[in-house]
Write a structure and sequence with these properties.
heterodimer, A: alpha+beta, Aldehyde Oxidoreductase, domain 4, 3 domains, seven-stranded mixed sheet, five-stranded mixed sheet, 19 helices, 27% helix, B: alpha+beta, Ubiquitin-like (UB roll), 2 domains, 5 helices, 32% helix, 2 iron, 2 sulfur cluster binding (chain B)
């Protein structure tokens, strides 16, 4: 079958830490006709040159979206790339959400990787179908394919005299061999008619009418709803329980114990006791009525306040080097002045608006899952393991996500649903409550950092030492992890352009006491916070304008080599450094533009205090300025925000703008209020009352976004807007109040 | 106990626990899944519906309180998605993940019914209880004003 992949790469979360990028499954067997690849289609032929794009005889083009929709607008963006290459009219395109299957290549929707990872491959899927339709038309007209062009859902003879609709060509096209990838010519970028233009939001009407289908909106006959009491401490388990009172509640049908997970925790369920009921309310009441005695295990000793002290202690001593040029110790010892600062940032919870939810049915030797998952193939693997079935007997259907931010890459909630469905013998939807979500997350790492800079007699920086310490994500996947390794510092430490002759980065040890996971922009959050704050501290110490200082420390526009960075390799988000260099020029440009847009030079005259930060992440460059004011009761508030993003070539500018707007709000939440703490091993927060998020009245009056026009290879969009927000706010608060915030959330130091 | 409630103009008779929150009666019993569960404690607004025209958080409203009354959910806001707010939401590309938006729309609709020409402060006050983790707040303000025909100075 021609859609059988010859080669595909799938990245591993263990190796790549969710940061590398795999290609699409595009190996096309050229000798087999495309018709053979359409099993089950009996009457009308359908052109299926690959698993991503199908053309029916009635002209309907089906494009498969293999990445999950979680608010980034991927379903409104990816299909447009395919349609543009094909020459299809979007009004005659149907977008279908892929199930979890390795034939699609990597489907893990994280690492801001969807467009940047597969832009060229996606184009090739559409171009392949186009090449075949054009060849069919050329044959019919007895002309060379070069005399034909595909546009507006038809193939035209270039003289404009004749045309044939896509549908009319399908019967002929399916008889042709699928061309080899290298024989397929991509259009020049200028011919991609909709890419880069204002595109409609495909799912907009469904969202505003309540018709959009999220994780909890799928219903099966005979289904029960499960609410689970999970061990309050990671690694804890049920010592004993009594379900008598729970079973007495009307609507409660079964109470089942879930198996405790083994270390490392990976994507296993948490264990605990599930109450299965006819409706969610009964299941929730049933859980309340359970009488459970827990065995907490060794993580009971986890105390965030003590851990904070220990983490800060660890960055006061030398760590393992991860980046080194020159002689930092000598330069610091001989510096006329040394500027130093320590920073701390706590655990965070993802808190997507829809808490985790999955529905499973295990019957007749097959397992079906409907889940709000960012990572349908991991969900499939976990479901198969739990059901005791081979993966080809497992189907994972992907609903809309209701937010993800990294939480829904983990398949633990899918494992729970499959276990319960199998054990109960009926379809089961496992519904996490908000309390479950906040208390049992794969948390963003707590972190401590120390930055030191040496200045010469003229105030010029001669040395830069950055120490960072945090429990690493790998600890969730492997037992022998004692802290970060060099590649964990890729995010904002190794790839930081510095025009300073002596630079060293070091990492300290930190043992994980909870499940650590990736949260939107990951380690960039705390690294950008510390670096962006320290740049501002350095400017004030030197008596230099913060923007001028930043530009000077970054240095002249240049592509910074691996040697200049002082590393042997750069993980670089899975992309080759040649295609995506550390480009100081692009970083400078977003700083220059965002300061120009925000009236940086006139800030005193305008009575504003502004804060600036800029950061490279996921191969994109983002500069942020925020203005701060004090409100009537003396609280600092973000009044306005400006964002300049250089993400290379942009497919869907409106979704890029919306991601930047959202990043400002997400960044404000984590900077001002976000904090998850543990006491006796258990999470102290439980709902939006104590895990505070930005509300509409806290939102800036306006968020201005400017996208740098570029034909550079696409970079990430979903995450890169977040990292510079916290340091920009902290710097603006310093300008407003004279108080330097060295610990997040800000509310612990300054009223916000 | 049987509860009679008119939902989106249709008379319904429900044989459920009178303490069951309206949210779960709508979602699990009537199959109206446009109203969302986000927190269960009236903290996020994702479950906002109208009870006799007033906004309530369905997750903390026992179904017995709706007995003999009229409930409007997102599915009943307009027959065809043509409410000015729904149109403005789509035109301005407000939703990101979309999950909170039915609650946002129901609160915004109640605001416009009371105050057809709202200011930013009115909007912020009326939607203070509606969280959006994706951060669509600035577009929500713009879309409410667009629907109301109030010029947006931003």
């Amino acid at each position: 079958m021609s859609q059988q992949p010859v080669v595909f790469t799938r990245r591993s979360f263990l190796e790549g830490l969710n940061l590398s990028v795999g290609g699409l499954a595009l190996g096309l067997v050229p000798t087999v006709s495309a018709e053979a690849a359409a099993p089950g289609v009996k009457s009308a032929p359908e052109l299926r040159p690959n698993v991503f794009v199908h053309v029916a005889a009635d002209g309907l083009v089906t494009i498969v979206c293999h990445r999950s929709e979680m608010g980034q607008g991927i379903r409104s963006s990816m299909p447009v790339v395919v349609a543009d290459e094909l020459g299809a009219d979007m009004a005659r395109v149907k977008v279908v959400q892929a199930v979890g299957d390795a034939v699609y290549g990597d489907q893990n929707t994280d690492g801001s990787s969807s467009i940047r990872g597969v832009f060229q491959d996606l184009r090739r899927t559409g171009a392949t179908a186009r090449t075949m339709l054009v060849a069919a038309a050329a044959k019919r007209w007895k002309v060379k394919p070069e005399a034909c062009e595909a546009r507006e859902h038809a193939v035209y003879l270039r003289d404009g005299q004749r045309s044939l609709g896509f549908g009319e060509l399908v019967a002929d096209a399916v008889k042709l061999p699928v061309p080899k990838a290298e024989a397929v010519q991509l259009r020049p970028l200028s011919e991609l008619r909709r890419v880069g233009s204002e595109l409609p939001l495909l799912d907009g009407p469904a969202y505003v009418t309540g018709k959009a289908v999220f994780g909890a909106d799928v219903k099966l006959p005979g289904m029960l709803i499960a609410v689970v009491a999970r061990p309050p401490v990671v690694g804890g388990k049920v010592a004993r329980f009594d379900a008598t009172r729970a079973l007495a509640i009307p609507g409660v049908k079964q109470v089942l114990e879930l198996p405790p997970p083994h270390r490392p925790y990976l994507f296993q369920g948490w264990g605990g006791v599930a109450v299965l009921a006819e409706n969610t309310w009964a299941a929730m009441r049933g859980r309340q009525a359970l009488d459970i005695t827990w065995e907490n295990g060794p993580n009971e000793s986890y105390d965030s306040e003590k851990y904070r002290v220990a983490l800060l202690e660890s960055v006061r001593a030398p760590g393992k080097p991860a980046r080194s040029v020159g002689d930092v110790d000598k330069a610091l010892a001989s510096a006329a002045r040394v500027v130093e600062a320590e920073y701390y940032a706590p655990h965070l919870s993802h808190a997507p608006m829809e808490p985790p939810v999955a529905l499973a049915r295990v019957a007749g030797g097959v397992c079906e899952v409907w889940a709000a998952t960012q990572h349908p193939q991991a969900a499939r693997t976990e479901a198969a393991k739990t059901a005791g079935l081979p993966e080809d007997k497992v189907t994972v259907n992907v609903t809309l996500l209701g937010g993800g931010f990294g939480r829904k890459s983990k398949a633990d909630f899918v494992a729970e649903a499959v276990f319960l469905a199998k054990t109960a013998g009926v379809p089961v939807r496992v519904q996490w409550t908000r309390e479950d979500d906040i208390r049992h997350d794969y948390y963003h790492s707590a972190s401590a950092q120390k930055l030191s800079a040496g200045l010469d007699a003229q105030g010029k920086p001669t040395a830069w030492l950055h120490r960072t310490s945090f429990p690493a994500i790998r600890s969730t996947f492997s037992e022998d992890v004692t802290g970060p390794v060099a590649r964990d510092l890729n995010q904002g430490v190794l790839d930081l352009a510095l025009d300073i002759p002596n630079v060293r980065a070091e990492m300290g040890e930190a043992l994980a006491k909870v499940r650590i996971g990736w949260l939107r922009s990951v380690n960039n959050i705390f690294h950008a916070y510390a670096v962006g704050s320290f740049m501002d501290e350095l400017a004030h110490a030197r008596g230099v304008d913060p923007r001028d200082n930043l530009l000077e420390v970054i240095g002249p526009a240049r592509k910074v080599s691996v040697a200049e960075l002082g590393v042997t390799t750069l993980p670089n988000y899975g992309a080759p450094v040649e295609a995506h260099p550390v480009d100081a020029g692009r970083l400078r440009r977003v700083i220059e533009r965002v300061t120009e847009m925000s009236g940086w030079n006139e800030r005193a005259k305008n009575g504003r205090t502004l804060g600036l930060a800029a950061h490279r992440s996921f191969l994109s460059y983002v500069g942020v300025v925020v203005s701060m004011t004090k409100d009537a009761v003396g609280k600092a508030r973000v009044d306005e925000a400006w964002v300049v993003v250089d993400a290379g070539l942009v497919v869907n500018p409106d979704r890029v703008r919306s991601q930047m707007e959202g990043s400002v709000i997400f960044g404000m939440s984590l900077a001002m209020y976000g904090s998850i703490t543990m006491k006796e091993g258990a999470t102290e927060q439980s709902n939006f009352r104590d895990y505070r998020l930005v509300r509409i009245a806290d939102a800036p009056r306006a968020i201005h976004v400017d996208i740098v026009r570029s034909e550079e290879a696409p970079g990430g969009v979903g995450e890169p807007g977040v990292p510079p927000v916290a340091p920009a706010i902290v710097n603006a608060i310093f300008a407003l109040t004279g108080i330097r915030v060295r610990e997040l959330p800000i509310i612990r130091t300054v009223p916000v | 106990m049987s509860i009679r409630v008119r939902v989106n103009g249709v008379e319904q008779e429900l044989d459920v626990d009178p303490e069951m929150p309206l949210l779960w009666a709508l979602r699990d019993v009537l199959g109206l899944t446009g109203t969302k569960y986000g927190c269960g404690q009236a903290l996020c607004g994702a479950c906002s519906v109208h009870l006799d025209g007033q906004v309530v958080r369905a997750c903390v409203t026992p179904i017995r309180r709706a007995d003999g009354r009229e409930v409007t959910t997102i599915e009943g806001l307009s027959p065809d998605g043509g409410h000015p707010l729904q149109r403005a939401w789509v035109e301005l590309g407000v939703p990101q993940c979309g999950f909170c938006q039915s609650g946002q729309l129901m609160c915004a609709a109640a605001l416009l019914a009371k105050k057809p020409q709202p200011t930013d402060a009115d909007i912020d006050q009326s939607l203070a209880g509606n969280l959006c983790r994706c951060g669509t707040y600035t577009r929500i303000r713009a879309a409410v004003k667009k629907a109301a025909g109030v010029p947006d100075s931003k």
